[in-house]
Description:
By secondary structure, the chain is mostly helical. The chain contains 4 helices and no strands. The protein starts with a helix and ends with a helix.
Amino acid sequence: xxxWFTGLQLGIAVAGGVLCVILGLRGRIPTDLTMGVTALVxxxxxxxxxxxxxxxxxxxxxxxxxxxxxxxxISALLLPPAAGFWALVERNRWSTVILGVVCLSVAVMIFRMxxxxxxxxx
Length: 122
């Protein structure tokens, strides 16, 4: 994993999550802004998948369990589309909160993936 890219992902996921939770608690239904933030988090996860597949070829190998890393990554990749689908089907304030919770959950998963990639010993 690339450290600056992980920081970028974390910043966008946390900021987007907080924004969605605040807007949802204020009674806002899902909008282009909240769906767009969630889509951006998903796009960055797709880029992360490409980076994770290419990094070992460049000599940047994971120090932890690759299975655990990829389970986190695939799980994180599935969350935003599921939340987006929910937000489109059930358009109410709680759908916006769910988008925020998903973005915050993805941020935690990204942080954990960074730990698995760089900190853990084999």
